[in-house]
Design a protein that fits this description.
Layout (H helix, E strand, L loop, with lengths): L7 E7 L2 E7 L5 H5 L6 E11 L8 E10 L3 E6 L2 H4 L8 E7 L3 E8 L16 E11 L10 E8 L5 E4 L6
């Protein structure tokens, strides 16, 4: 019996680069991304774009790349139907996250018992944000997709965060 694993069309942010491609986790995406035994993830049909103008090349295409999972700032699931394949916690909290070059606003899926000022479970690096919007806070040459159903954010790249009331915008 052949295992049929989903393939996600993604946009991945790492320092100074935005990578588009296809990501096929080996099992549930959230479990796969939080597996500490995996140092890299494979992304196929890659297009790498530079985020700053100080690079001599604007980007390139490659059949695949292996990305250091600790270097990833966030992964946006681009296709709405594919995002429905994610298995996430039901409890949500509206949060804005800040990395060194962007802000991500949306509904963080978390354990309902966590305090607002300590939403990250130390046993996990990646957390799902639904109804997400990504805003750059620096000048970049390539904008990430602004609105997506899900973003997987790397807590190690989050500099600060706060909750908000959805009517605050």
């Amino acid at each position: 019996m052949e295992l049929n694993l989903p393939i996600f069309q993604v946009e991945i942010a790492i320092e100074n680069f935005l990578i588009s491609g296809n990501f096929q986790p080996r099992g549930d995406a959230m479990v796969f991304m939080n597996d500490q035994s995996r140092t890299h993830i494979r992304v196929d049909d890659v297009e790498l774009k530079t985020l700053t103008s100080d690079y001599q090349i604007p980007g390139f295409k490659q059949s695949y790349m292996s990305l250091d999972r600790d270097a990833i700032h966030f992964i946006s699931i681009i296709d709405q139907e594919q995002s429905e394949l994610l298995q996430v916690l039901r409890t949500k909290r509206p949060v804005v996250f800040y990395t060194d070059w962007c802000a991500i606003r949306g509904d963080l899926h978390v354990n309902r018992d966590l305090r607002e000022d300590d939403l990250f479970d130390r046993g996990h690096d990646y957390f799902a944000i639904s109804n997400a919007s990504v805003f750059t806070t620096k000048g970049v040459t390539k904008l990430p997709t602004r609105n997506v159903n899900y973003v997987l954010v790397n807590r190690r790249k989050v500099l600060a965060y706060h909750t908000y009331q959805p009517d605050e915008g």
